[in-house]
Amino acid sequence: MHLSKTITLLLSLVFVAFTNLSPAMGFSCVKKKKVMELIMAVNDNWQASRPYTTNAFWDNAAYHTGNMEVYKLTKHEPYRQYSENWAAHNQWMGATSNDTAKWRLSYGETPLYVLFGDWQVCFQTYIDLYNLDNVKDESKVARAKGVMAYQMSTPRNDYWWWSDGLYMVMPLMTKLYHLTGNQQYLDKLGEYFQFADDLMYDKTVGLYYRDAKYVFPKEPTINGLKNF
Question: Fewer CB in a 10 Å sphere around the end CB: N or C, the chain?
Fold first, then answer.
């Protein structure tokens, strides 16, 4: 994984975690203010130095999930607009193939990998933007609904074979449940998570392997130990 991609995901996780801070955690108003100023300074720099005209793959899309959380905290309109522009640039889609017979779920960065979760995390931001609109535009969430409806119609449950996928798609399915009230999103989430948990979680150590190829004894460390 490239360092820049790792930093992007970590920043998005920090943004999300910050929204859950409470007074009981010992953060004074001053400390919260300082943290918020730092987050905004980093975010302002990020947006000033990077155009919104990037694709909807996970490394960009994970950032936008964090950006939306910062917008929820600050109501700073340029943040929302930056993600809105990015979403529109990508036509509110992830991977763009429309031929379901060719859709793939393994790793891939081309239009065919519609069922690969790294192309689905963008839908989280599209739904967040849709929810903010006073006048709803269904085109913003149509692709998300269509892709996940097809995915859930298949008998497969092996969609999440890498640990990042839990961040990429689990929140999407809960957002879609809240958007539609369709219980199937939660039912399928449970099935997909059970597969991922059975595949990657090491009960002895209490950690998830990076992905299926690292499950011991495959890809051990140089000392022959479990490699997470």
Answer: N
Question: DSSP alpha helices (H): ranges in 25-138?
Answer: 29-49, 58-74, 77-89, 122-132
Pair of tokens at residue 130: 């849709």
CA–CA dist 64, 121 (Å, integer) = 9
Could you tell me the residue range of the domain that residue 174 belongs to? 3-214
Omega into 23 within 30° of 0, i.e. cis? no
> DSSP H helical segments within 91-212, as ranges?
122-132, 139-153, 164-180, 184-200
Eight-state DSSP code of residue 52: S
CA dist., res. 182 & res. 188, Å (int): 11
Q: Confirm if 88 and 39 have CB atoms less than 8 A apart.
A: no
Over residues 60-99, the pLDDT tens digits come to 999 999 999 999 999 999 999 999 999 999 999 999 999 9
Closest CA to 103 of 53, 57, 161, 151: 151
pTM above 0.85, yes or no: yes
Q: Is residue 227 part of a domain?
A: no
Q: CA dist 96 to 110, 125, 167, 211, Å?
A: 8, 17, 21, 25
Decide if 61 is inside a domain. Answer: yes
The residue assigned the tokens 């460390």 is 221
Residue whose pair of structure tokens reads 């239009």 in the numeric block = 111
Tokens, residue 118: 């790294």
Neighbours of 118 (CB within 10 A): 23
At 158 the three-state DSSP class reads coil
Measured CA to CA, the distance from residue 83 to residue 127 in angstroms comes to 11
